[in-house]
Amino acid sequence: MRITEKDLTTLRFRPDIIIGIDPDIILSGVAILDKGTKSLELRSLSFAKVIDLLIWICGQDKKILVCVEAGWLNEGNWHLNKRDNSRTAAAKGKAVGANHDVGKRIVEMCEHWGVMAEKVRPLHKCWKGANRKITHEEFCEVTGYKGRTNQETRDAGLIAWNRAGFPIKIRVSR
After folding, report:
1. Which has the closest alpha carbon to 143: 155, 132, 133?
2. What is the Cα Rg of the chain in Å?
3. Quick one: which of 42, 49, 8, 9 has its CA closest to 26?
């Protein structure tokens, strides 16, 4: 379903399907969330396959929102540690910039085809995993997902889940 200018300028747009994307140079994490059923599908897709997905979206008769993690909206995003030399720092900066560029291109293509897209700041890291990233177990507990995940698909899933307004809390066992 194509989004009209009126949809873009009003708060009435309530998507049926939310697609969360964690952009990456090689494989982006993609989550397709049906709000009505809370059905969640996770994929790792190349840029070309993400574009194929966006083309497919254009032909759908449902309200679809694409949410792209937009780390470039953060003022500072340092991935360096004390032991990094200038070559390592440059390589990390190049990789982060390339990931951001993939995200920007995805948003650009959505805008070009009239697909509703939102740039989403990375969610706060407050989980048990390395660097406070969400673990597979935590993700499955929050969403009820029963399948394999990787960090990119979990991040994409959280973006969609959060945008849908679904709770992101873990039950504490006593």
Report:
1. 155
2. 17
3. 49
Q: Which residue shows structure tokens 């747009």?
A: 13
Distance CA 41, CA 31 (A): 6
Q: Which two tokens mark 53?
A: 């997905």
pTM above threshold 0.85 = no
pLDDT tens digits along 94-138 = 666 677 888 999 999 999 988 899 999 887 767 777 777 888 999
With beta carbons less than 8 A apart as the criterion, state whether 122 and 76 touch: no
Fold assignment, 5-163:
Nucleotidyltransferase; domain 5 (3.30.420)
Query: Going by C-beta distance under 8 Å and a sequence separation of 6 or more, which residues neighbour residue 148?
Result: none
Distance between CA atoms of 14 and 78, rounded to whole angstroms? Answer: 35
